[in-house]
Amino acid sequence: MLDLSYVRSQFPALSGEWAFMDNAGGSQVLKSVADRVSDYLLTSNVQTGASYAPSQESTRRVGESRNAFARFMNCAPNEIVMGPSTTILIRFLSEAMTGRLQPGDEIILTNVDHEANIGPWLRHEGRGVTVKWWRCDPETFELDLDDLRGLMSERTKLVCVTHASNILGTINPIREIADIAHEAGAELCVDAVAYAPHRAIDVKALDADYYIFSVYKVFGPHHAVMFGKREKLEALDNIYHYFFDKSRVPHKLEPGNINYECAWGSIGAVDYVEELGRQANGSTGRAAIEAGFEAITEQERKLTGKLLDFFQSRNSVRVIGRATDAPAERVSTVSFTVENTDSAAVVEAVDRHHIGIRFGDFYARRIVEEHGLLGNHGVVRVSMIHYNTEAEVDRLIQALEPSL
């Protein structure tokens, strides 16, 4: 069980009057993260790679960030690429795959993904690469693995999919998808932005080739991390200066250098989850990360269950996605529409109660457009994480009731 008093004390913004339930757009930031960012800027703000001592310290700190996220994702530090956002990192990855994608090759995309894992790949159509669409069921919004199998061919080079939908909250079976892709000789690129704040990540068990998330959704600064299997990263094109050869990983994929202070600050988010695990069962390191997320999962399950129970008691509410709080099935991001009611009006009524939720398409525009949800300003999304409380859910329910 989480010590919620401890948890909330680590996020200064939570001491105010607002309840933050727009966390899929960006979580609140740990004080330890902000302190680390400040410390870097004020004590070691020099370029890495030089021989003098402050530069050596800066180099060490950036390396420590790779070590921390290797622990967080269960991979090697030299398989960690960093950048400003998931959107940018996937664009970098797409550019770096140019030499490997030839006319006639195929990429499979889903219509449930955030546009960050769609738009960069569509650019290859202009070079003769074929894009195939793995579309969800129009009634259930589910992706069918048999549909994916039917799309695969000997020309398929890449499958792109989200681990958890930032609208549906649905958790997709990444290991099964990886097995299908690899059996056909293709690679798998996973957008994990909507998953990473909620569950422990084990890229070895998932067997994805590329796995990306944004740290500002995981209690940290505007920073992002991409795992890539070492041999896959080495095979990518160099997108940095011409004198970086293809073996120079990860730097050939980090043009312009990364944000050093954000890299150093982000370690605070990993340390925080480890501390939750230590408090839970006395573990350390990777085991503590897993234990920390087990505690996070249970807290979020309770929040999700309370909210879904309320929605299911209202005939006017349509939950978009799975109406279950089962941790294996979904994360604590819940989207809905209200019959004959504009989603913007629902959210604006809640705003007056100092509760932050949101309406729209959340850059997953295709699923919203294709399923007739764009009218009435899209869907209403409530995205909770572990620092939210059951009392805050009760506040939200009271604020929503007049609109439902």
Report on the architecture of this protein.
With 404 residues, the protein is an alpha/beta fold. Helices cover 39% and strands 14% of the residues. It has helices spanning 4-9, 31-43, 53-73, 86-96, 119-122, 145-151, 174-183, 203-206, 230-235, 260-281, 285-312, 343-351, 365-370, 390-400; strands spanning 19-20, 80-83, 106-110, 130-134, 156-162, 187-191, 210-214, 224-228, 317-320, 333-338, 355-356, 358-360, 379-383. A seven-stranded mixed sheet has the order 2-8-7-6-5-3-4. A four-stranded antiparallel sheet has the order 9-10-13-12, covered by helices on one side. A two-stranded parallel sheet has the order 1-11. Helix 2 (31-43) runs antiparallel to helix 10 (260-281). The longest helix is centred in the C-terminal third of the chain and has 28 residues, at 285-312. The protein is globular. The mean pLDDT is 97.
Give the topology, please.
Layout (H helix, E strand, L loop, with lengths): L3 H6 L9 E2 L10 H13 L9 H21 L6 E4 L2 H11 L9 E5 L8 H4 L7 E5 L10 H7 L4 E7 L11 H10 L3 E5 L11 H4 L3 E5 L9 E5 L1 H6 L24 H22 L3 H28 L4 E4 L12 E6 L4 H9 L3 E2 L1 E3 L4 H6 L8 E5 L6 H11 L4
Parallel strand pairs: 1-11, 3-4, 3-5, 5-6, 6-7
Antiparallel strand pairs: 2-8, 7-8, 9-10, 10-13, 12-13
Helix pairs in contact: 2-10, 3-10, 10-11, 11-14
Helix content: 25-40%
Overall outline: globular
- Proportion of residues in β-strands: 5-15%
Quaternary state reads single chain
Could you tell me the radius of gyration in angstroms? Answer: 21 Å
Report the end-to-end length measured between terminal Cα atoms: 33 Å
Pairing-aware structural class of the strands and helices?
Answer: alpha/beta
| Low-pLDDT runs | none
Order of helices and strands: HEHHEHEHEHEHEHEEHHHEEHEEHEH
Mean pLDDT, rounded to whole units? 97
